[in-house]
# Entry
Amino acid sequence: MALKVGTGTGAKNDREDSLYSRGISARKPLMMVSLILLVVLAGGVLLSFTSRVFWLPAVLLEQVLFAGTSAAGAMPESLSLLTNATGTGILIGMLVGVFALYLLAVRSLPRLVSHRFVLVSTLLSGIAYVCIPIVTSQDIFSYIAYARMGIIYHLNPLTTLPTKIASDPVYTLLYWTKQPSAYGPAWTMISCSLQWIALLLGLRHLLSMELLLRLLGLSMLLGSTQLIWSISGQLQGKLGGTFSGERQRRRAMLAFAWNPFLLFEACVNAHTDFTILFFVLLALWMLLDRAPARAARETIVYADRDKPLSQQDLFPLPQSVVKIQQDSRRSRWRRGNIQIAALMLAIAACIKITLLLLLPGFLLYLWTRRIAGASGKHRFRDVLTATGVYIGVIVLLYTPFWQHGALLQIVRVSPVITHDVNSPYQFVVCVIASLKGIPVPAVLEPGSQLEAISHLVSMTLFGLAYGGLCIWSLLRPRYVNTVPALIRWLALAELLYCVVGSPWFWPWYAIPLIGLLTVIEADGSIHIRLVPFLRAFPLGTFARVLTISMSTLCIIGAWKPGQSSLPLLSNLKWLYWNGYFPLLYHFRWDYFAGMSIWALPLAAIGIEVLLRQRKLARATVRLP
# Structure
């Protein structure tokens, strides 16, 4: 009897412990979101004391509650660029805290969160980031200047210098004043549309346009998150999804949506690269084989009949004829989706011209894709149609801004063509220049001969690597003939461009690469038919450490410890030498950024691969 009572009591305690642990697990995601929001909101409040704009929710609430009265203060004209050491320290502290919570969440929350929870929590986090009153990049001011050129001053942003609007309040916030817009016509149309909406609503302050651009960045981040979830789900379903695959999919989606670097660049600096990523993912989504129900079964629905009546029940046809009709409809549906995918990729290229690099991979996929019954004639037709749509859209969008070829002057004045920034090429060039005692010119000055040589080397190396990738894919179609293979191809092309083909590099250039890596991680099919090294490649670790590394570029230029008044750093002023490396003349500490941003993720994955191999070796030794 005592045994019975003991057993019953133990079972009851086990059930209570289980319910308690379940309650803790259910509250854990909410606690994590609350902590992240607390850190971001606290960082925004502290940063407001270092800028000319107070905390944005308080400013907007004051304008709403006291509109039209003397109690309402003056509306701030614009956000502030982060330039002071105090604000930089606050931003570093905020990013460190958010990244620590983020990494903990990615490790422990995927089995506890749902798709809807990730989207809602990302929306809340994004709104908190939108309220941060500073920016770390002046590109957002350039977006506004070019939009105001088109809507207010009726000028062509792609051919007109910002000096033409020197009386506009946005002009004093610009960094690039001697070149027209470096962005394509698609982004010009998007930003001009936002400016038109702002003026239509009576919002004439620069701050209103800045908030609209931030909200656009947040919407593009949410849209990209949803597309990653949809693409990976359809790929997993096609390959046979598993419970572990579903958890991996949630982990990848959570890692992308909650990433502090992505949220900061989307909702604070509002860069165009999120809009580019959205259109690229939308193109990939259109390429998935989602044959509509009508292609499988035609139905006729009558008004007085609740149940659909099959056409085959009314007019029986031989199965061979039905199959031909279904294949014909599916073929037309696929051709339509291919044309829409080409349209999306063309729009992405009309935002930033470097996205032209994705076109060969798309055409290689159309030529080599595996579809039953696809003949060479059909493949040639698909390639020709997609190319026509792609070129036609680009010509159509650029024509209104062409202005008798004046649009091409950006090639002559853009510093991207003549300077090296935040790349391994900059590190090598600056080391050589310092050893020779040659000063490195600023980005607003003409480029040096060493930089011109580095650009030539970059183009040569990238041309060889990219051409080799295209030829290899044509000879080995299995590396590009399916949608998962195409995604890997596009990610590799983006990685080659960021590391090898871009002497002028900024951290947000890696955003499309991070999105494609997330799709691969969520899909999990990277292990199919790859060499052993790539099978062991820790893709998730690489993507997350890469974002941490890219985040350091947001603050590395503003951090000048040699000018700090802190005792510890004051005693080491000889080491920093006012921002210059003491052993190399004219070599600044931030020149190390071009190497460190790629060395850090490569070192991290090297350590993880080594630890995995040691763990596998120990497990092998323990086997009898």
